[in-house]
């Protein structure tokens, strides 16, 4: 039961310390949620990060990359503390951080106080991070929570015939962003949202939340992740829940689909949308899945990489490739490196990624449905692939800015 | 009871009306106006039952805590770690043997053993030095937390509910009446009811053991005057060890319960330490009935709070604690 990540960290430090001493090093600080509700997500993120290092190597010209990992617990202050520690104690020059939504907003704000350094978002997906007052040295190569829901609302309304749904979500920026994306599309198609329930991150006892779910809806949308999602499903099953479910991007994800126990079976047939789909046929994706599977023994990883592994892979890939383009030149406040980062176009496992003027990813989104592979393992199967999803979700920027920022009650359920 | 009514007739009347109102809310079919004002009855009933069953879990943790404090005047701040350890042991055993019940037994024994070692190796050495003991337990809880993080990782574990306990049962409580006149009964998860009943049984057995047996007599005497009890020739150290083992074992059982209807992960230790501290402060340090009352109050406050005032739910329990500390600092049911 010894966890992989401790070993992983130990291994990577070991490898690093034995590497050529005389060589000049570029220090990169990495944060992941290795504590608290999102522990499993953080661990798999680090696996994705490691897979990228295996694939692309750590050499940049005549320099060697050194990665230092710090742990957070999904709260903004823990992320800023970890980032500060990496900068002040470990003297890192580049950051690959953070994982979770609220952390992202905090780290972006912190990034402004250190304009000479470069921050590459690892996996966080709150809209505000890059949409409101973006920081010139903060780059995000994954889409935000709203982009990750593109396609779901229409699919639920048109194909599944859901007309009225209710949502349950964790009470923080990333899930606000996810519900934002869902509501815009679902209500735009003519659907109705009867009820939005918000629960604190790290809720253990969902019994009352489950009791308060409305009966007269066609489906219930779940925007939960990590331990919260597993707790919810476990208690949902104990309470005998039978409604149709819809899932957010970290709800229908290997972090939940391969959890121990049988509560996850409640998710069979659930429709969801995310920046990836487990069973996508694309050769690039299949190659990444293979690399991930080969990098770790089966009991130390998920059957297939989670969204977090994919995001960490993508951001690590961007970091290494952009550094190679400038041959590891970090002079002049890393100006050349930042320029390369802004321009780079990634051929990521989950489709092509390029950045907009706010340094926010434009990428591919997937609508999926949960299926059983016949041996009891659950996977998300592709239903629809939507390329070129931008942060304003295809809306005219002026219209989009009038909708308001994602929150408990925004957007309203209407056609914008 | 009668004395309380004689001394505070007004308060007794208010309490009576509150109880009657609560019973009416639970038993009667709600008129439509009420449903419009505060939501459906099903939600309310569920929240009440959830509060009580959550209270049962809190009681299991807090009763050991308060027992140890009552006898040894030792605020064991490593109590949360014992809870978490019990949960991990229960998980490992139930995965290994496939038996849920066996998980309880072994978790009880294993955590009780840890308690015995703690009492003999640590607390006996600094008997009577309250502050030193408290500081040591804080240190120990940090060491335990890191050891468990090392052994079990940051992952969350969930103990499998046995298949005969999965799913809801219908309770004879009417939540609504359909237009056809047919009554709709409340459906509630069986596993929570079983755990609730088990907690009541444990509470009654503990009360009987304390009030009706020779050992219980010694423990009560020890709570009142430790030195005098020792002077009468009772092997007081043995009683201490036994009580510590029992208190720790109960925390272990609670860990398995917590792992079954919630989940266990790092951080749960401090959460449950905090919960049991609040429970015993509200109920009264050292009192078993106090722990039961406090646990139900805190459980209800958390669950009703999460339904009716979700934004401020976290504050409610602490508000209750502050109120109790302001009006009755010794706790609701404390004897002294």
Description of the molecule:
The complex is a heterodimer of chains A (416) and B (336). Chain A is of the alpha/beta class and 416 residues long. Chain A has 14 helices and 15 strands. In chain A, the strands form two sheets. In chain A, strands 7, 8, 9, 10, 11, 12, 13, 14 and 15 form a nine-stranded mixed sheet that branches. In chain A, strands 2-3-1-4-5-6 form a six-stranded mixed sheet, with helices on both faces. In chain A, helix 5 links the parallel strand 5 and strand 6. In chain A, helix 2 crosses helix 11 and helix 12 packs across helix 13. The radius of gyration of chain A is 20 Å and the shape is globular. Chain A starts with a helix and ends in a 13-residue tail after the last helix. Chain B has a domain at 46-266. Chain B has 14 helices and two strands, in the order αααααααββααααααα. In chain B, strand 1 (168-177) and strand 2 form a beta hairpin.
């Amino acid at each position: 039961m010894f966890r992989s990540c401790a070993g992983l960290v130990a291994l990577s430090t070991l490898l690093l310390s034995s590497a050529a001493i005389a060589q000049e090093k570029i220090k990169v600080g990495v944060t992941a949620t290795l504590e608290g509700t999102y522990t499993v997500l953080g661990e798999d993120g680090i696996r994705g990060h490691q897979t990228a290092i295996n694939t692309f190597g750590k050499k940049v010209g005549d320099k060697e990359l050194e990665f230092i990992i710090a742990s957070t617990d999904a709260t903004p202050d823990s992320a800023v503390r970890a980032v500060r520690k990496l900068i002040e104690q470990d003297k890192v020059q580049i950051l690959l951080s953070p994982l979770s939504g609220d952390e992202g907003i905090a780290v972006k704000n912190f990034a402004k106080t250190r304009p000479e350094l470069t921050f590459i978002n690892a996996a966080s997906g709150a809209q505000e991070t890059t949409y409101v007052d973006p920081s010139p040295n903060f780059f995000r190569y994954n889409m935000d929570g709203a982009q990750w829901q593109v396609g779901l609302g229409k699919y639920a309304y048109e194909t599944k015939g859901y007309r009225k749904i209710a949502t349950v979500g964790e009470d923080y920026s990333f899930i606000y962003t996810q519900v934002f994306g869902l509501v815009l599309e679902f209500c735009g198609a003519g659907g109705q949202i009867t009820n939005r329930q918000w629960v604190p991150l790290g809720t253990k006892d969902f019994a009352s939340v489950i009791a308060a779910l409305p009966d007269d809806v066609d489906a219930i949308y779940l925007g939960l992740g990590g331990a919260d999602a597993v707790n919810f499903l476990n208690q949902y099953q104990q309470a005998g829940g039978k409604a149709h479910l819809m899932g957010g991007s970290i709800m229908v994800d290997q972090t939940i689909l391969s959890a121990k126990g049988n509560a996850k079976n409640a998710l069979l047939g659930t429709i969801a949308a995310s920046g990836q789909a487990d069973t996508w046929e694309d050769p690039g994706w299949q190659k990444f899945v293979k690399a991930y599977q080969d990098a770790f023994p089966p009991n130390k990883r998920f059957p297939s990489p989670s969204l977090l592994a994919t995001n960490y892979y993508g951001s690590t890939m961007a970091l290494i490739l952009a550094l190679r383009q400038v041959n590891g030149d970090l002079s002049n406040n890393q100006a050349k490196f930042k320029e390369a980062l802004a321009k780079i176009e990634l051929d990521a496992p989950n489709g092509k990624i390029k950045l907009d003027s706010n340094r926010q990813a434009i990428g591919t989104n997937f609508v999926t449905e949960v299926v059983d592979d016949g041996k009891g393992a659950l996977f998300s199967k592709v239903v629809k692939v939507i390329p070129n999803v931008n942060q304003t979700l295809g809306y005219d920027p002026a219209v989009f800015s009038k909708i308001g920022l994602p929150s408990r009650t925004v957007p309203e359920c209407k056609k914008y | 009871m009668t004395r309380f009514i004689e001394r505070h007739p007004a308060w007794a009347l208010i309490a009576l009306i509150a109880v009657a109102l609560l019973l009416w809310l639970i038993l009667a079919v709600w008129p439509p106006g009420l449903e419009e004002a505060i939501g459906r009855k099903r939600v309310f009933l569920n929240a009440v039952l959830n509060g009580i069953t959550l209270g049962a879990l809190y009681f299991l943790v807090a009763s050991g805590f308060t027992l140890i404090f009552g006898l040894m005047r030792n605020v064991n701040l490593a109590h949360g770690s014992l809870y978490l350890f019990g949960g991990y042991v229960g998980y490992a055993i139930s995965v290994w043997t496939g038996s849920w019940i066996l998980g309880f037994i072994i978790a009880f024994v294993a955590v009780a053993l840890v308690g015995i070692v703690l009492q003999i190796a640590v607390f006996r050495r600094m008997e009577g030095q309250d502050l030193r003991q408290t500081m040591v337990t804080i240190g120990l809880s940090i060491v335990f937390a890191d050891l468990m993080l090392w052994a079990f990782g940051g992952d969350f574990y969930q103990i499998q509910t046995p298949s005969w306990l999965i799913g809801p049962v219908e309770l004879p409580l009417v939540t609504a009446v359909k237009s056809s006149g047919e009554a709709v009964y409340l459906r509630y998860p069986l596993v929570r009811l079983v755990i609730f009943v088990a907690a009541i049984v444990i509470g009654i057995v503990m009360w009987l053991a304390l009030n009706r047996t020779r050992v219980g007599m010694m423990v009560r005497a020890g709570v009142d005057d430790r030195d005098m009890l020792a002077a009468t020739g009772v092997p007081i150290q043995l009683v201490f060890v036994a009580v510590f083992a029992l208190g720790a074992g109960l925390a272990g059982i609670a860990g398995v319960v917590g792992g079954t209807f919630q989940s266990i992960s790092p951080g749960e230790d401090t959460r449950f330490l905090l919960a049991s501290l609040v429970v015993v402060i509200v109920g009264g340090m050292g009192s078993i009935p106090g722990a039961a009352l406090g646990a139900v109050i805190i459980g209800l406050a958390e669950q009703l709070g999460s339904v009716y005032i979700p934004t401020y739910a976290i504050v409610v329990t602490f508000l209750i604690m502050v109120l109790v500390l302001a009006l009755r600092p010794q706790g609701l049911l404390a004897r002294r």
